[in-house]
Amino acid sequence: MTDLTALTIAEARDALAAKTFSAAELTEAYIGAIDAANGALNAYVAVTPDKARAMAKASDERIAGGSAGALEGIPLGIKDLFATEGVHTQAASHILDGFEPRYESTVTANLWADGAVMLGKLNMDEFAMGSSNESSYYGPVKNPWRRKGSNLDLVPGGSSGGSAAAVAAHLCAGATATDTGGSIRQPAAFTGTVGIKPTYGRCSRWGIVAFASSLDQAGPIARDVRDAAILLKSMASVDPKDTTSVDRPVPDYEAAVGRSVKGMRIGIPREYRVEGMPAEIEAVWQAGISWLREAGAEIVDVSLPHTKYALPAYYIVAPAEASSNLARYDGVRYGLRVPGRDVTDMYENTRASGFGREVKRRIMIGTYVLSAGYYDAYYIRAQKVRTLIRRDFETVYANGIDALLTPATPSAAFGIADQEMNSDPVKMYLNDIFTVTVNMAGLPGLAVPAGLSGEGTPLGLQLIGRPFDEETLFSVASVIEKAAGRFEPAKWW
Q: Is the pTM here over 0.90, yes or no?
């Protein structure tokens, strides 16, 4: 029998339906892969083999009974930000030590309703704050990819680094992830996987630990475009428990994969040619443009003039919302509690011990910009810039553009504990330069592998779509995927 963990979700789904193997056998193959590799990669912070086996057994019974769901028997990894009933849910933070919710997030509930199997909880940057998965309380995740001829451990990107690494290393068939400023698309680009941040409101945020509520959105990371489409179809839904979720029919995203792009107008925003961008990023962008032109799309130069303000505006809005959302972690109701002389001292001790350095930095920035005397100067002004960014996209789409093509990241994956990155937070934040505009405008964005760097590590392209037009992104991404080919890391773990 072939290596079951090498199968895509679509391939495994069809083989399970044909009874080529059982859901129990598929699940055991993934449990074995996790046991063998997780010590090296640190992708999972909690593995749930007993739960996975029980879910797989139930899947086999439904398959035998002819009532299989859309994801019946497919083993998935779940980012540690999603509440999973009775299972470790700690946002990779010390302050949530021991927290096991008595409820299930809407997104994971949707996946289980469609028959998916949970393998465990995936590592991430603490509270989803980071671009390298180095801020996790459980230690950094290692990228399954390495540079040619090098043993240097590379970051998988963040904050969904565990999700991306697990998918790339075949430690799950697909994974849930979240994206606040690029946390699905950047790690997907660093690991040669496909990640989509859907339109804000497409997936419920209920039961997902909040970072910045007006920016956070759940989405999948998968091995190819078709698998990402299959997962998003199950994850998306309206939810009365989340007033920001939108009541719109969920399309059959998989049907859009492979659809012709002939006659589509693809915009190339000139502002994404940033100073100092490596030549190989420009080269892969030009390759993507050529592939789409050859497929019959019209390539149009466009302008998004307020793009240059997106990153500073984002790093005002996101920390401000984080400061508010993370105020609830005080040691009173759940998680870590560090005693003190009185209740105020207990709050201070708990938060000082429980939060990591990056989370503290963002809370302090957010508290500052929301404080009296600075609220108008920073937060209100950033929200006005956000409106201008959204208006730029609306203007472009009103002129008949179907989607935009940009680089996904300003570089390939860098080394863990990279001195230059870790000594200057601003340099780390610049990893989000191509992705934050999408969150600020609430648009869908998809990262698809498009080539390899000179050192043999993945490079990705980003597609940005109209609101709730993820179908177009899947169609365009499948053209790039077909032209670029699939990328797999050489196994060293």
A: yes
